Fold this protein.
Amino acid sequence: SRHERLALAHLALDGLSLGDAFGDTFFGRPANPDAIQARIDARGLANAPWPYTDDTQMALSLVAVLRDKGYIDQDELAASFAAHYEPGRKYGASMHGLLRGIQQGRPWREGATSQFEGQGSYGNGAAMRVAPLGAFLADQLDTVVEQATLSAEVTHAHPEAIAGAIAIAVATALAWQLRQGSLLPSRTEFIDLILPFLPESQVRNKARRARDISETTSVEAVAAMLGSGYAISAPDTVPFVLWCAGEGLGNYTEALWLTIRGMGDMDTTCAMVGGIVALSCPEPALPTTWLTAREPLPTWVK
Ligand code: F2R
């Protein structure tokens, strides 16, 4: 039912936003590898509150549109992104002009397709927000692909950004499907299930590499091999996220601590991993103490 679908979307939204807020606490306090390593070793949590960033802010709009329409209405999604644009949420550089343009009446398609001299953005911003959509449609994988594409196109016209969004949405849907069975798959099996849904792209090629990395490779080495989002692009972020999610299925906090060890774009890698892995965990999936530390989500998405 729509009610059950929405409950799954909210679980993914909580997993995503908690990962986003948790990951963001590793920046600027100070953001150096030694300080981060010390926190990882001590499992040290930052003092509350943990503000969320653009990952969550844009995911809220996806959930609101799915709640109201039951599918991705691109005009509604663009309008919601623009209405809830908060410049201080650390958006990717090109989003400010795009969202201000929509606020001023520019058609979203014109804005999205003219980014980066007509290439469209291949940033990781379409993938970072999409987990709730995968959860909402968790029993319909082909529809997930179609709807994730529609959700990405509103801001990210480049095929790599779209491939990244499909990958994260399918991974989230599969995480829920696999939780219904008695055994969670290995990382290799998990990524193998995602690959057939991905269009030809760097994202797919690197996801294949993520599948095939040997069992004994450390997360730090995986991050060096695949990238962990320093370039904040989809190909530099999504394959690493699939590896972390595959390794962390069934254990939300361990999945996020593993992801942090890869450094890089930590709020966004943790948002993506958190959104996926939340759907694979037994209830209660998310730690209450962490949820209490996260900045509360606004009431307009309830
Ligand atoms: N690191 C960020 N945001 C910057 C914060 C700046 C500042 N400190 C602040 O506080 O405001 N994280 C956020 O950005 C990522 C999502 O980005 P999104 O939405 O995809 O944005 P954008 O700008 O479209 O793409 C990101 C960058 O990728 C490069 N790029 C993309 N397409 C390109 C193309 N066709 N050609 C060349 N370069 C391209 C550009 O450098 C873009 O700026 C998330 O991590 C989010 O949390």
User: Anything to note?
Assistant: Residues 53-55, 90-95, 116, 119, 121-125, 128, 158, 232-233, 265, 267-268 surround ADP-ribosyl-L-arginine (CB under 6 Å). DSSP finds 16 helices and no strands in the chain. The longest helix spans residues 2-24. The CA atoms of residues 19 and 213 lie 24 Å apart.
